[in-house]
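Example record used in the benchmark description.
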Amino acid sequence: MTPLAADSKRSALASLSLDLDNEWAYLRTRGDAAWRAYPSYLDVVVPRILEVLAKRGLRITVFVVGQDAALAGNRDPLAAVSAGGHEIGNHSMRHEPWLHLYGAEELERELEESERCIEAATGQRPAGFRGPGFSLSRAVLQMLARRGYRYDASTLPSFLGPIARAYYLATARPDPEQRKKVGQLFGTWTDGLRPLNPYRWDVGDATLLEMPVTTFPVIRAPIHLSYVMYLAGHSRALARAYFGAALRACRLRGVEPSILLHPLDFLGGEEVASLRFFPSMGMTSRFKIGVVEWCLERMQRQFTVVSLGEHAAAAAARADLPLVALDVK
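Model output (structure tokens):
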């Protein structure tokens, strides 16, 4: 392949984002009371993530939880993310994956407080939002538009949401109150019918850009790196083949992939004993970082990889962006 052909092949955009879910957030969702002490691994994992990204010259979007930004012990790693040139997004204040159940007043307080804490810790006011556990509702989208957000990134167009929810309920220990709230956790079967490419929600008096987390075209299986990591735990060759096929399918179907990372993609079970219940935590951090680096290299070989905010700006400039009626409650 000539250099010119290679440049042409990479001209299609792809984006990377990372949900900076902390140790306490995972423990809380699992129903472990230890979360109340807010245990954190940010001081360990953030420098590691920034090193991997800097090595490849990548600037991505990092969705920060407001509660982490409010704790003084997390201020240095969060400031380092912003100082590294990465976009800061809002991942809610309390990381409750039942955000879709919030009333209007509670939702506004959640967003207002998280925005204030995140801006104080990072120097950036978030312009993008992702709900924890892909939690989404009509009220959330309308509130985001009213508060001036440029885009939402809370949709995962996959048919596998109910299976993920069943796995969660079988392995976690939610208290009775939490169990009542997780009826829509990870979405429904119909989420798999949503668009893979960016579109605009019609929220009434305004519109809001939606940047879906990409799933495998046609079959709509997840391709975020935590899922790839799960496959790598069985076979690294299988994981590579799957992710490579997903990227090729995106090229063929005209999908500009938006790929999601999590901190556990960079951490081994030997480092966070409390989270060894996760399927991928039987692997070492060295092994997992190798998988991440391979995937990033493959992305950069086929796409121009940018932050989600840059991807959103390019999408918003398109005159033919579809307008979609709100199909959420």
